[in-house]
Amino acid sequence: MQQTNPFRAIKYGLRKSLPFWLILPTIIVILIIQVYPALYTAWLSLQERSPSGWEYVGSENFDRLLSTGIFPESIGHTIVFLLGYAGVTLSVGFLVAVLLKQNVRLSGLYITLLFIPWIIADVIAGLVFRLLVTPDYGLFSGILQNPALFPPNGLSVLTASRPTPWFGNFPFPPSPAMIFLILAASWRALPFVTLLILAALQTVPQEIIESARIDGASGVQLTRHITVPLILPAMVVALFNLILGGMNGVGMVFSLTGGGPGTATYVLSYLLYVIGWGQLRFGRAAALALLIAVVNWILIFSVLRMTRVNDRSR
Predict the structure, then answer these.
(1) Mapping DSSP to helix (H, G, I), strand (E, B) and coil, where does residue 53 land?
(2) 8-state DSSP, 33
(3) Which among 147, 191, 222, 288 is least surrounded, fewest beta carbons within 10 Å?
């Protein structure tokens, strides 16, 4: 009867388990910075702080959050912000990337200058843009407060009231502060999107472009039927980044508008900050954080599904 060599069995077992031991540090890091905070947030959403400690309240935090008027209003503001933010940034980023691809003079300098907004923190960028429109001494205050340009008494971006909504209580058209917030956030995210699209444009085969031009394709047709489909993966990555950044970023809102005027720029991320650190209602803030996470997943899967539908239709 042949006996199994115990050392060979141990060596074989170590060889089979080697991949697990190699990825174990990564698993531990993910458990610490991803899984544990998520589980703790879920537990915290079912609790309420009392003088004696944490008290289990079940779904009461969710019920109170959903029953407030500011929550649906913040959802509307978030939708308007995301649509404007993603639309402006992708459009301008695509146009700037196309211009930089033409090998214009000093294009290297332009690309270097393009990095400046990217390296500035959201809070600092918000403060800079706030100084631009501050009444009396802002850089644009002389133009904005001119009654001839903005009758009857000029325009104060940070304090102007919201226009009457066109669709019930949905906050559209947005307030001047929301429009300015969208422009500021787009300026901050423009470098990443532009460089991502520019890198994708460099991979478009010139032979295809030249062949289409010989066949009589116009510039619009080249962009619509050749360039955009070929760089669509890069556009999707840029859209993911914009959605997640716009959905969860709070620094720009905090330093630029502070949620105002009134609640005109209360997006979900800023509402989360106000409930958690302004009102110290951590249980309700955790409930809102879970709802924001669900919205993030819905947005991501919606974009993925639209991308797959477009891939099948081509």
Answers:
(1) strand
(2) I
(3) 147
The pLDDT value recorded for residue 5 is: 64
Global pTM reads 0.86
Task: Please choose, from the candidates 288, 296, 289, 292, the residue with its C-alpha nearest in 3D space to the C-alpha of residue 64.
Answer: 288
CA atoms within a 13 Å half-sphere pointing along the CA-CB vector of 43: 7
CA distance 145 to 157: 10
Average confidence (pLDDT) over 194-215: 87
Contact of 97 with 198, CB cutoff 8 Å: yes
Domains defined along the chain, listed by start = 6-60 (no CATH), 69-313 (1.10.3720.10)
Give the number of other CB atoms < 10 A from CB of residue 264.
22
Position 307 confidence tier, pLDDT thresholds 50, 70, 90: low
Tell me the per-residue pLDDT of 47-98, one tens digit each, with 9 for 90 and over: 988 777 888 888 899 999 999 889 999 999 999 999 999 999 999 999 998 8
Distance separating alpha carbons of residues 209 and 226, to the nearest angstrom: 8
Query: How far is the CA of 90 from the CAs of 50, 85, 96, 198, 239, in angstroms?
Result: 47, 8, 10, 12, 8
| 290's tokens | 């879970």
Sign of torsion, CA 117 120 123 126? negative
Rounded-to-integer distance, Cα 209 and Cα 215, Å: 10
Give the HSE-up count for residue 24: Cα atoms under 13 Å, Cβ half-sphere: 6
Distances (CA, A) of 158 to 51, 179, 255, 265: 40, 10, 12, 10
